[in-house]
């Protein structure tokens, strides 16, 4: 399918349909025991990873937990909240440590044969310079000093240039994928609850997470149970958050 055909498919997604989908999404706190179909989970994950992301390095990973015994172990990790009794929990992880593999992967899996020279040069030279912070961040420190000097004369992209910047970089892209994931489940008739209330130390032990993986949420998924939504929706007035220029 060419790009023009893919873009034409967007005509089917009307603003009204998108608004209805987004407005229907609520954080559901109580779920039934009905399992989530595996084909639905895979479809939703495929939609999640279509999210825009920085330099197409896709710094995310997902752990899909359906095993009842493992879900039972996760419940106290999630502060024993009701949402953690869902039949499916997906650990959404930001991965600031996977950029090297991703750079090589873009070149290896380029969808149109050999990648253009400009693309190959970017992923072999520019991106490694930008994302490699060095042991204990020494490369990032030197880059920050260089950017202070060069930036006096022209605009520059000044981050990520530290390990802390890399964490923010990965979390931003992963959060976009997480929103795709929630809306995808909503479109299939399942509800979700993005949980941030969990013990990260115990979570790492239970799921044996890679050391550099950053858990940004545990996404509970399932069919809504009784009294599934606790409170009416509340959002502050739009003008409180928006400046017009």
List the helices and strands and how they pair.
Layout: H1 3-8, H2 15-24, H3 38-48, E1 60-65, H4 68-77, E2 88-94, H5 99-108, H6 117-131, H7 138-150, H8 163-187, E3 191-195, H9 200-207, E4 214-222
Helix pairs in contact: 3-8, 4-9, 5-6
List keywords for this structure.
single chain; 245 residues; alpha+beta; NADH Oxidase; 4-stranded antiparallel β-sheet; 11% strand; globular
Can you tell me about this structure?
- The protein is an alpha+beta fold and 245 residues long.
- The protein has a single domain (28-199, 211-226), classed as NADH Oxidase (3-Layer(aba) Sandwich), CATH 3.40.109.10.
- It has helices spanning 3-8, 15-24, 38-48, 68-77, 99-108, 117-131, 138-150, 163-187, 200-207, and strands at 60-65, 88-94, 191-195, 214-222.
- It has a 4-stranded antiparallel beta sheet.
- The radius of gyration is 21 Å and the shape is globular.
- The two termini are 39 Å apart.
- The model has no long low-confidence stretch (mean pLDDT 94).
């Amino acid at each position: 399918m060419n790009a023009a055909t893919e873009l034409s498919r967007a005509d089917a997604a009307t603003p009204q349909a998108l608004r209805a989908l987004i407005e229907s999404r609520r954080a559901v706190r109580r779920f039934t025991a009905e399992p989530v179909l595996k084909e639905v989970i895979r479809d939703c994950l495929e939609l999640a990873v279509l999210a825009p992301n920085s330099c197409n390095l896709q710094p995310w990973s997902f752990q899909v937990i359906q095993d009842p015994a493992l879900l039972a172990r996760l419940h106290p990790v999630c502060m024993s909240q009701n949402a953690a009794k869902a039949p499916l929990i997906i650990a959404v992880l930001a991965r600031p440590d996977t950029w090297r593999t991703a750079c090589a992967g873009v070149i290896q899996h380029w969808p149109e044969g050999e990648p253009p020279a400009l693309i190959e040069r970017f992923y072999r030279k520019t991106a490694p310079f930008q994302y490699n912070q060095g042991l204990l961040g020494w490369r990032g420190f030197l880059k920050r000093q260089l950017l202070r000097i060069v930036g006096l004369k022209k605009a520059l992209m000044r981050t990520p240039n530290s390990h802390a910047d890399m964490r923010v970089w990965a979390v931003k892209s992963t959060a976009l994928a997480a929103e795709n994931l929630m809306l995808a489940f909503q479109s299939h008739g399942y509800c979700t609850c993005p949980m941030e209330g969990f013990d990260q130390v115990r979570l790492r032990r239970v799921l044996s997470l890679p050391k550099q993986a950053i858990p940004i949420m545990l996404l509970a998924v399932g069919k809504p149970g009784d009294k599934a939504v606790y409170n009416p929706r509340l959002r502050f007035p739009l003008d409180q958050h928006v400046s017009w220029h």
